[in-house]
Amino acid sequence: SEPTPAFVAGLSLALNSDQSRYLTSVMRKGVGDEIAIFNGRDGGWTARIAEAGKRHVTLALTEQTRTQGKAQGPVLAVALIKRTPLEYIIEKATELGVGKIQLLITRRSNADHTKLERLKLIAQEAAEQTERLDVPEILPPVKLESFLAKLDVDAILFGDEDSTHEGDIRVTRPLLDVLSTLTEKRAAILIGPEGGFDDIERQTLRARDDVYPVNLGPRILRADTAAISALTLYQAALGD
Ligand code: SAM
């Protein structure tokens, strides 16, 4: 949706038809009711419903109740996997404070995945439910190699279950240990597809000094379990 104007007290804001229908038909709100709104930049505000048509609601902003948080959460770089677990990752990552989600194409990623627009909607709904003041950006799928070529983070926490597979998790470090060394750095958490990264991808990753192969314990986790547990540990160690 187009960027909303800067929020100020008294601003009159017209909602789009989906938002209007949601408020009037699903939430059963009407003229005079007060709601909480955010635009991802100006913090949390209360607003009163001034007009309430089925597909046309106008709000009058009353006051700012929450300031916009500064911290951006980590980037979650996740290979495309089947629809249900991918949608689950988007929703849970949003609740767990992810900064943005980069979808990845890898040699074993899943071509039959949820379309971007639907994932963006899931992120928006999860942000509203979890009362975040921003919606994490969902970036269209790119090849792993191009993601690595255009990095905007200092560290990649590479979920590397391979050594776990070989029963030797000494090759990787526990994620929590690595997180304690990352205080100021912008990090990406990298999670592979159902079939894992292949040997070439793994070698490419392990060869980089900005990549930290990490384990999430001695068992093989599904991609959604791995993404959620990594974000939970990140939030516990560095989150706000
Ligand atoms: N190689 C796995 C297998 O043999 O079933 C398939 C990959 S696993 C289902 C999906 C992704 O989750 C992996 O690519 C990895 O990024 C992450 N993952 C799973 N278990 C992990 C663990 N114990 N430690 C770190 N990452 C893990």
From TrEMBL:
GO cellular component annotations of the record: cytoplasm
Keyword Transferase in annotation: yes
GO MF annotations, alphabetized: rRNA (uridine-N3-)-methyltransferase activity
Catalytic reaction annotation: uridine(1498) in 16S rRNA + S-adenosyl-L-methionine = N(3)-methyluridine(1498) in 16S rRNA + S-adenosyl-L-homocysteine + H(+)
Organism per entry: Asticcacaulis benevestitus DSM 16100 = ATCC BAA-896
Taxonomic placement: Bacteria, Pseudomonadati, Pseudomonadota, Alphaproteobacteria, Caulobacterales
Main location, first listed in the record: cytoplasm
Keywords recorded for this protein, A-Z: Cytoplasm, Methyltransferase, rRNA processing, S-adenosyl-L-methionine, Transferase
Gene3D superfamilies: 3.40.1280.10, Hypothetical PUA domain-like, domain 1
Protein name (Swiss-Prot/TrEMBL): Ribosomal RNA small subunit methyltransferase E
Span of domain Ribosomal RNA small subunit methyltransferase E methyltransferase: 75-234
Listed SUPFAM superfamilies: alpha/beta knot (SSF75217), PUA domain-like (SSF88697)
Primary role: Specifically methylates the N3 position of the uracil ring of uridine 1498 (m3U1498) in 16S rRNA. Acts on the fully assembled 30S ribosomal subunit.
Subcellular location: Cytoplasm
Gene Ontology annotations of biological process type: rRNA base methylation
Domain Ribosomal RNA small subunit methyltransferase E PUA-like: from-to ranges: 15-59
InterPro entries in the cross-refs: Alpha/beta_knot_MTases, PUA-like_sf, RsmE, RsmE_MTase_dom, RsmE_PUA-like, tRNA_m1G_MTases_N
The family this protein is said to belong to: Belongs to the RNA methyltransferase RsmE family.
